């Protein structure tokens, strides 16, 4: 941060680490604003969850400022499947319902730190760790996550490993997960 | 961040930038957990607001991870008076009610960026800027703020300028705010 | 810092965090140079002080390098009123005269660390803290300040709180400083 | 880096982000030295590969210096299965043999960038990305990897997702990978 | 790092700290790739050594990623003369032959940490320290160095002090090295 | 910076990157204060200059704050010989007299940026560059330097290359500077 703010200029033809800045004279309060985080996302999908991001893509004023948000909705038995944020720690607050959440540490321990959360509970997922949230209840749940980057990124393990474009070779994945190549084929077909 | 996590060891006799770390073998999920953010703070005070912080003081696992939260409750006509976070940008979400919020840029422009927010609205206060929230409505309001530091710090302008211990000399403040020294005396008496 | 230097190209139509760089082949010693810091600023103003900045606005070569200077002149009884640098720690050396200086810590202590300085004395104001210098003597004083940012920014409390454009509502400030709204009106009229 | 070096004092009872420093007077050239990277690791394991790390655990002098190494040996058809380094970018040089390598970008594209490498070829895996190396040839292969952290960390996807202690619930993983819970059980049994 | 990658766009007319980014849609695996590090450099020169750099100049994908490599070849009695990397720590692995290596600490101790290395040995040169490698053997030697910057920079002491363009005044160098000005003239004539 | 300040506790038996912190309750204004920068250093030495440092060694309160100062005195024809600060950019102000100053860029250009400075002139030496100041006048000169680190470090080229303990082998230096080994012996004898 080398000035009061550097609102992202998404029309700039020059791409830089982060975004180029709008002319400060053209900046208004709208550049620091987002509306609609009280509305539920559509959880009618395989995982039964929906993430509504509020990062530099939605609020241009977040450029260079190192923080962002996401609302997550969970249908009953819905989940935010195992994923990592390569550029951010996450701190999550349960607004409605209950969630079973956890993260796993790096090799060699691969220790799972997990906990059941209720409304008003807060949990931290350290940067780069694989983590998940699961709504094991019969009501829908809502959480608000804050992340320590203007653009935290999401790598959903299933999608990245079994659904990359082009696909990672089935031989590699079969050996990596110690399963028959046919199992890999079937998983890849889902993504 | 030089390891998966460095949970604050608040019993350490050695003080460092941030906190020393607990033995990782003694770390549990509780170290990343806080409970109670669904409960309103007590707004029966002069400003009519209450801040419930969730930073490294409440969640030891936030040490070195660069993020924290605060719930803010506002009575009708209550406000979170002008203040700065010397070490963090803030992104605030209105959970209930309406708020008039704003921040002021640095010299020489001292431009105010302000906006009325409703439930589900989000606003950003860049690091180091003087900012405030005011509940101009007849109902109480609630916001959840995320901050880009494990220990963002708060400098409430009124308290720091007129309520420091010991006091800043009245001569200095009278000239700084271009008022009679008696006015300064009266303000200082409030803090 | 990802190259030997990145001299600010102030003619660039592309704005970035900091500044775009001049073509290194066009850089000369003049880009790292400023002249005139031996000359006193004009202290004929309400605060009785003058700040002559030497930052990336004056020396284009400071871009990306994380440091800058300012000369401050103080008339007798003049002061550099309470202000913060949102992006820098300051280390100040008294070149002539005497100064009473101080800074205030964050909530909840709001502790004032203050001291009288004479010629050759040095004092540190930590990043983000409210601080001031006051020439309580009958001679003019001069100080040289170094700041840990190429563009430290200055938020003068009086100007930002009572002189923002547009103004912060008098109701908010009256409650913030626990004074009558008429007092706020009078202060705002000064800025 | 706030001094010439801060050699890790692994006997310190105080744990900090990184490591406490040895008394500089007791530091010798041995603290910056490691021997044995010319020797092959034992690849007689399920993945057919072996990683010999040279980070702050092996060279105490790397503490605070932001870099480390690893030698990787691959049996014929051996692989370094999909994994991430949460705290480092990797740049890998093939010393012997041939490797098929790749990394996958974050959501929503999950694009695979992959390439066959021969002796003397170099490839980059950006920080936080899932990546792998596969020796598809009939000879063993050797690579030297450099990483941009003194303690980059390794999260092997298979181990962390299917081999965590305690295990992530099979219901969660079955839904995450869109497979029958029995398949998850079988995979978990391998780890 | 504010996105998955920011591959250097070397055709950009806008220069920034580091490089502007290519359109991510135009990025391919080739942007993370370099070939030829198995080939020896030409050591037929005064110092008897050759450095083959693999940094952002050779691999555009290294932009913003904080790491690079260099292969160094040494003829018998050849050396990589005293130099510093102003922006990187170096970790060096001996691939072939033997080397005598060392670095010197800052004032006032100027302590030399030195060691003879054989094949498979690794040594660390902390950022900013003057260091060297000397092949005291009768066979050629090869090392692979990793550096903690995408563009570490090299300041060879001899070239910078005695071979700058224009030259540093002989009077200054004569006094700096406590020699006759004629000696300086003779050294300068070599560079 | 993870709290308002972390004043160096130089009595701590635990050494860390930088310094451990004093108990904040025991901190006073004296911890941010240094006296005596108006007094000239003793320039009766071979280089005819004296550096009076004001860094974390002199002001414990500078710990973690990223800035420091130095006063430099120059006898007539005295000089601050070629040196680098491995951890800081320097910005220098001439308080008295005239100086010829310069810095040299990295390989391959090794371009000298130099200029004659008078009282009130300011010049910047980018981090890691070899730079010098020479008083070519018949009066003594004084400069105040600010540096972008609490502990910038100084590597005087002459001392580090020719005066290290133990010495760098004369064979290495003779080849590095393309001189006869006897010349190296004579230079080494001076340091």
Automatic annotation (TrEMBL), chains A, B, C, D, E, F:
Gene3D superfamilies recorded: Jelly Rolls (2.60.120.10)
Positions bound to Mn(2+): 83, 85, 90, 131
Domain Cupin type-1: 35-185
Top-rank taxon: Eukaryota
Pfam families linked: Cupin_1 (PF00190)
CC per GO annotation: apoplast
Catalytic activity: oxalate + O2 + 2 H(+) = H2O2 + 2 CO2
Keywords of this entry: Apoplast, Cell wall, Disulfide bond, Manganese, Metal-binding, Oxidoreductase, Secreted
Main location: secreted
Location in or out of the cell: Secreted, Cell wall; Secreted, Extracellular space, Apoplast
One of the record's GO molecular function terms: manganese ion binding
Binding sites annotated in the UniProt record for oxalate: 80, 85, 90
Keyword Manganese: yes
Family: Belongs to the germin family.
Protein name from the UniProt record: Germin-like protein
Lineage of the species this protein comes from: Eukaryota, Viridiplantae, Streptophyta, Embryophyta, Tracheophyta
């Amino acid at each position: 941060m080398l000035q009061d703010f550097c609102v992202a200029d998404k029309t700039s033809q020059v791409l830089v680490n982060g975004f180029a800045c709008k002319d400060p004279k053209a900046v208004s309060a709208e550049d620091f604003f987002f509306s609609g985080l009280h509305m539920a996302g559509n959880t009618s999908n395989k995982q039964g969850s929906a993430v509504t991001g509020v990062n530099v893509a939605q609020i241009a004023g977040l450029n260079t400022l190192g923080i962002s948000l996401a609302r997550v909705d969970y249908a009953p038995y819905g989940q935010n499947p195992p994923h990592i944020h390569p550029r951010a720690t996450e701190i999550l607050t349960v607004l409605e319902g209950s969630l079973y959440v956890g993260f796993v540490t790096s090799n060699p321990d691969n220790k799972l730190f997990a906990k059941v959360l209720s409304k008003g509970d807060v949990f931290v997922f350290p940067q780069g760790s694989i983590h998940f949230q699961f709504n094991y209840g019969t009501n829908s749940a809502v959480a608000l996550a804050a992340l320590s980057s203007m653009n935290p990124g999401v790598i959903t393990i299933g999608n990245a490993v079994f659904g990359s474009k082009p696909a990672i070779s089935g031989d590699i994945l079969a050996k990596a997960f110690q399963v028959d190549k046919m199992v890999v084929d079937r998983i890849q077909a889902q993504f």
